[in-house]
Amino acid sequence: MSLLQIQNLKLDIATTPILADIDLSVDAGEVLGVIGESGSGKSMTALSVMRLLPRTSLVSGSIQ
Q1: Is the dihedral of CA 31, 39, 58, 51 positive or negative?
Q2: Quick count: other Cβ atoms within 10 Å of Cβ 60?
Q3: What is the pLDDT along the chain (64 residues), one digit of tens a residue?
Q4: What backbone torsions phi and psi does residue 47 show, to the nearest 5 degrees?
Q5: What are the DSSP calls for 1-64, one per residue?
Q6: Alpha carbons 2 and 55: distance in angstroms, whole number
């Protein structure tokens, strides 16, 4: 059973592409760590999941 499932997440803020084709799944009992360089999209992915993005954001894909 997936507690979090992201499929084909894409994010643009205004006309700037931020995220492209993000897929991940976290099942019950699993722990997920996301690592990457500064500016790689870790925070924007988390903000997308929490629906705390700026008003100029355009999101597509599925977050369940």
Answers
A1: positive
A2: 10
A3: 799 999 999 999 999 999 999 999 999 999 999 999 999 999 999 999 999 999 999 999 999 9
A4: -65, -35
A5: -EEEEEEEEEEEETTEEEEEEEEEEEETT--------TTSSHHHHHHHHHT---TTEEEEEEE-
A6: 29
